[in-house]
Q: What sequence folds into this?
């Protein structure tokens, strides 16, 4: 059996369906338009939108996710289907409801998304990023912490902090990501530094300088980029407390900060601990609840840890004692597999976009087999209907 993608390329369809007889499986159209919502502003998403897809414009996609934030498979699929759509799911609705009712004068509330790898935590965080941007909040977003811990592009001993290590390349990339996500808002807010930062005998950032100057220094001088990130996060905390802005912190794979080791080695070949990274100190400081006028949303995922620490997806196990105590108290929110309504919406979406063209997928029996084979697991379903 063959099928065609929206771009006209030929792919092989999932072979299991070819063994089912058309005589025993009458093909009946089951797709409807009820799997989409016209409410494109995530601030307004509520229970009525559960299980529905909403579309994100190309402009917003470039602003929010050009530097990461969408799982690789999900991004590639959205590129192939010529449009980014996100399903409104219960975990995101719960978060949006909490955020809409939050007392921002109180210390920041911390939320922890958890669930099996591939259940949709990163996509839920992407939904919340869009919410924060639409609500006019300054976004502090780390797309995937393990990229810093397990696959760093380069680490160097810190010139300022003894026994600490910097991520020059990753810090420059993160500052660029921050600027892309918050550029127009930062120009409007006109936030300034509250203290003087001395980088060397000749270089300094004076108190009262625009935060954009701080960011530009980090972008142009990788040697100071990690310390510029730390300074920026500290200034954002102060600005939030002073009610000059509202900050939304979104970190995917947060438990990687507490992994037992990284892949960075010292000269003596011993491993550097993630807690010895200057970036770790900066983001752990930001995720304490010693400030207000903001919110902190993180995810924990078994894939963020080495293979020997993947027995349970629960926050207590993934964070470990140190990480759990750092975030406690927090509100845990589980991201489960698809329920029946979400599963059928996802199949309807694949069919509507001509990604799943096998006619038997439109029958109750065909869908039942897809549901059974994938276990309603979002990533498994995506791989199941993908081309070979």
A:
């Amino acid at each position: 059996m063959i099928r065609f993608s929206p771009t006209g390329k030929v792919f092989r369809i999932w072979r299991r369906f070819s063994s089912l007889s058309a005589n025993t499986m009458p093909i009946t159209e089951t797709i409807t338009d009820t799997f989409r919502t016209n409410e494109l502003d995530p601030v307004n998403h509520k229970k009525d939108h559960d299980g529905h897809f909403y579309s994100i414009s190309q402009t917003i996609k470039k602003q929010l996710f050009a530097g990461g934030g969408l799982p690789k498979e999900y991004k590639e699929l959205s590129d192939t289907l010529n449009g980014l759509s996100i399903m409104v799911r219960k975990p995101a609705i719960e978060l949006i409801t909490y955020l809409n009712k939050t007392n921002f004068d109180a210390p920041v509330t911390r939320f922890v998304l958890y669930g099996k790898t591939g259940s949709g935590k990163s996509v839920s965080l992407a939904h919340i990023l869009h919410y924060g941007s639409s609500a006019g909040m300054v976004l502090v977003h780390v797309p995937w912490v393990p990229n810093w811990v397990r696959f760093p592009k380069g680490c160097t001993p810190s010139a300022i902090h003894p026994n600490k290590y910097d991520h020059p390349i990753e810090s420059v990339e993160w500052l660029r990501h921050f600027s892309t996500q918050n550029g127009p808002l930062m120009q409007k807010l006109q936030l300034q530094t509250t203290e003087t930062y001395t980088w060397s005998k000749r270089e300094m950032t004076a108190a009262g300088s625009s935060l954009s100057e701080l960011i530009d220094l980090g972008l142009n001088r990788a040697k100071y980029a990690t310390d510029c990130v730390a300074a920026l996060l500290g200034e954002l905390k102060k600005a939030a407390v002073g009610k000059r802005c509202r900050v939304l912190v979104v970190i995917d794979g947060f438990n990687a900060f507490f992994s037992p080791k990284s892949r960075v080695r010292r000269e003596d070949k011993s491993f550097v601990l993630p807690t010895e990274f200057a970036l770790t100190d900066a983001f752990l400081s930001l995720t304490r609840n010693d400030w207000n006028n903001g919110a902190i949303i993180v995810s924990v995922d078994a894939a963020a840890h080495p293979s020997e620490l993947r027995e349970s997806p629960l926050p207590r196990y993934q964070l470990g004692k140190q990480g759990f105590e750092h975030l406690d108290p927090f509100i845990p929110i589980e991201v489960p597999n698809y329920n029946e309504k979400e599963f059928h919406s996802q199949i309807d979406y694949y069919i509507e976009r001509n990604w799943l063209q096998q006619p038997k997928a439109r029958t109750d029996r065909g869908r039942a087999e897809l549901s059974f084979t994938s276990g309603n697991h979002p990533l498994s379903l995506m791989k199941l209907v993908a081309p070979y």
About this structure: The chain has two domains: 2-30+339-384, 101-334.
